Amino acid sequence: MTITITLNGEQKDLSTTLTVRELVEHLEIKSQAMAVEVNRKIIRKEEFDTVNVGDGDRVEIVTFVGGG
Amino acid sequence: MKDKPLQIGNYTFKSRLFVGTGKYETFQLMADALEASGTEVVTVAVRRVNLSGEGESLLDYIDRDKYTLLPNTAGCYTADEAIRTAFMAREAGISDLIKLEVLGDKISLLPDLEATLEATRVLVKENFTVLVYTSDDPITACKLEDLGAAAVMPLGSPIGSGQGILNPINIKLILQNVKAPIVVDAGVGTASDVAIAMELGAEGVLLNTGIALADDPVRMASAMKHGCIAGREAYLAGRIAKKEFGSASSPTNGIATS
């Protein structure tokens, strides 16, 4: 069953519920520094294998960019 | 000659120049400018990752053994947004350093002081080392120190304006009244602006646009480095008092033609 999440403000369909780690790997994010929020809660790296992302969840994945 | 290092919270730095990583034409140019500036602290912004997977990453060009990352909360207009951004930055960077910046509007880019104070209170309680961007208002600077700011960072002039230190008297008042390190942040246009801030007694200067948008950013980075050192040395040396009239440098007696 397809599920839909909101990823960085945009709708994204996934074939199934994923852990945060699986989602990050699926997206092929290779950033050296990133933070993940699910429904406005920070997910620590230690929690990547235990927290799931399911239908309707709002996910933010951020990194560092140039700034002053 | 010896100078004590700059101490902010549990961090110490030899260079007193903090340099931003925004607005450079290329990452390589940024890396070269950072090198030329001699900085040890570089600011970065927190933004959504590029999901296309294309393009290079800023961090590929920043040697984290050499530079300490100082994430900012740029682009935040409420205390809540800034606090949320700070938490994301801490998770991404594994460091408690945060440059808190809560702006009041998109035109002036001046800080919202009420929201800045509120966010400082929360982030200090959450064990962040908070370097707070603020206006040059001496009273607010004192309040920020009382709340536990690790450094108070008054603007010289609005962000990116290049107008230099518009109100040196306010910066002096802040320096007199606040024991926490004062880092002049924003508005620096050229090397003499850095020197002026340091001569006043600031512990450091943070700048970005003045280097990034100079015709030759690497050369300007070097100029800023020397401006910072010159200003600091002049401050430590103690300048002469200004006099209303001239005072001869050569002896006034023993002149052969007299």
Task: Please provide a written account of the structure.
The complex is a heterodimer of chains A (68) and B (258). Helix content of chain A is 10%, strand content 46%. Chain A has 1 helix and 7 strands; from the N terminus they run βββαββββ. The radius of gyration of chain A is 12 Å and the shape is globular. Chain A starts with a strand and ends with a strand. The model of chain B has no long low-confidence stretch (mean pLDDT 95). The relative contact order of chain B is 0.15. Chain B contains 8 helices and 10 strands. With 258 residues, chain B is of the alpha/beta class. The chains are: A mainly beta (68), B alpha/beta (258). Chains A and B meet through strand 4 and strand 7 of A and strand 4 and helix 2 of B. Strand 7 of chain A pairs antiparallel with strand 4 (41-48) of chain B, so a sheet runs across the interface.
Q: Provide a count of the helices of chain B.
A: 8
Percent of residues in helices of chain A: 10-25%
Beta-sheet strand percentage of chain B? 15-25%
What is the overall pLDDT average of chain A? Answer: 94
Would you count the extended β strands of chain B for me? 10
Strand arrangement, major sheet of chain B: 5-4-3-10-9
Distance between the ends of chain A:
44 Å
What's the CATH H-level homologous superfamily of chain B? Aldolase class I
- Along the chain, the helix and strand elements of chain A come as EEEHEEEE
Number of domains of chain B: 1
CATH fold assignment of chain B: TIM Barrel
Biggest protein-protein contact in the assembly? A-B, 27 and 38 residues
Sum this structure up briefly.
The complex is a heterodimer of chains A (68) and B (258). By secondary structure, chain A is mainly beta.
Sum up the structure in keywords.
heterodimer; A: mainly beta; 1 helix; 7 strands; 10% helix; B: 258 residues; alpha/beta; TIM Barrel; 5-stranded parallel β-sheet; 8 helices; 36% helix
